[in-house]
Each structure stands twice: as structure tokens, then as C-alpha cells.
Amino acid sequence: MRTRGDIECWLTDMDGVLVHENTPIAGASELLAQWRSEGTPFLVLTNNSIFTPRDLSARLRASGLEVPESSIWTSALATADFLRSQMPGGSAFVIGEAGLTTALHEAGFIMTETTPDYVVVGETRNYSFEAITKAIRFIRGGARFIATNPDATGPSTEGVLPATGAIAALITKATGKEPYIVGKPNPMMFRSALNRIGAHSENTGMIGDRMDTDIVAGIEAGLHTVLVMTGISDQREIERYPFRPDEILGSVAELVRDEPLETELADGEDGLEAGL
Fold first, then answer.
1. pLDDT tens readout for residues 26-46
2. What is the pTM of this model?
3. pLDDT tens digit string along 170-223?
4. CA angle 266-269-275, nearest 5°?
5. Is 81 a catalytic residue?
6. Which of 5, 18, 55, 95 has the greatest number of beta carbons closer than 10 A?
7. What are residue 66's phi and psi, to 5 degrees?
8. Residues 6, 13, 214, 234: which is the catalytic one?
């Protein structure tokens, strides 16, 4: 049976795992420092497609967490990676912001409003009825329908906001076409993340705070799954699902070892297993 001691690479969700409303969660800084000092390959994942990795790296730095942009994997990057594999040099009509348009440009896609190959819907702060109407017409005309993530709502200081999933549902209702969703809980996003860092599912762990995205996608991708209780999940939420994570922890602080790996081995203990 695979244990945490077998894990050599990590994927981790961001909000609810490392930060909460721009405040770092206890143990997050120490865990990131541990991974960096030991050369552990890792990626921070987010379904949010608004921001570029550079934006997110700056946001995390302002919260006191050091994560280079090369260690951030968004649903926008995963979507661009998927579309490049499907139709290199294709074209797209995009509803979204810089995180998505930049990723698609860098993947070699052309943004167009003339017979696009794809309609790609991502997160945005200002959904345009005109843009949604164009998307509907393009899809009815034969464009393939892609969404970066399924989240129906997002947070704001005033309350929830309609998000990608809600807008995609509106377009589906008008076209009769369901989107292909690349972000979590599609394990496609995890597989593209694994490829990004040259990792394998057998020795990679996934840390998340949501059973319905992080954990189920981690299980389906064959990863060692760790649920932390610093986000939206509580015991009642866990009991709702027929699957279970490999580990349930209070926070990522429980993944931080008291001693460096070399010290544990020098003392004759069994490496990472000593931290279990």
C-alpha cells in the first residue's frame, strides 16, 4: 500500500490550502520552504483562470508565500495545453481575462471573431451579454465548446458571483451543447500538471480542501490524496461522498517535518515515514 513516504512530488490547491482570503494558512510557508530546500518538484494548482501565473505569484508573495510563477498551474494553462494538443495553431473566441488569453496566445492560438474553431469560456469579472450572444452563435455554427472550470459561483466581499459554470450553463441552454471542461475535477488538469514537472502518478500526492474537485480528481488521476480541513470541507461534507482521501489532516502544517530529511536518515529513521 502506498504511503506518504512514497511521495516524491506534490500538487497542491491554493485557496483553502495555502491561503485564505490572502492570509497564509499555518504551515504553508514552512511546507513550501521544505519543498524548495529539498528540491521536491511541486505545482500550485488553481481553477481560477483570471490571473496569469505571474499575477498569482505576486499575490502569494504579498501574502508572505514564495511560489515562483513556474510552479503555478492554472485551469487556463491546462486548457491551453489541451487545445494545443488537439489543434495546433487553431483559433478561438474567448470569454475570459488575461490569464486565459495569455495562455492561449502562448500556446499558438489565434483569437478571432470570425468562424473560430473553439469557443472558450473562462472566469471574468465582467461577463458581456454581447460576448455571450456571439459565443452562442459560434457554437450553433459548429465551433467546439470548451470551459476552463465548472465552478458555478465565486466569492466576493459582497457575496457570491456567477462564475464560469453558470455562464457555461446559460450557453448550454441556448445551444444544446455541453462544454468540455478541462479544470478540476477533470483529472486531465492533473495529468497536464504531472507532465509539466515530469512526475508520475505513482509517486505524486495531491493536497486539497474540496472533496468534489481536488480529492475526486486526485483519486481518478491515481494520486495519493490529502484533504486538509482549512477550506470548505468538514466531517459532514466528507460523509456525503462514497470515496475517501488517503489522508485527512487539520492543515498543511502536519506535512512539515520537525527535522530535515538528512537528519532523520542520519538518525536511522525511515525517511519520510518518520513523519507519518
1. 999 999 999 999 999 999 999
2. 0.88
3. 999 999 999 999 999 999 999 999 999 999 999 999 999 999 999 999 999 999
4. 115
5. no
6. 18
7. -95, 105
8. 13
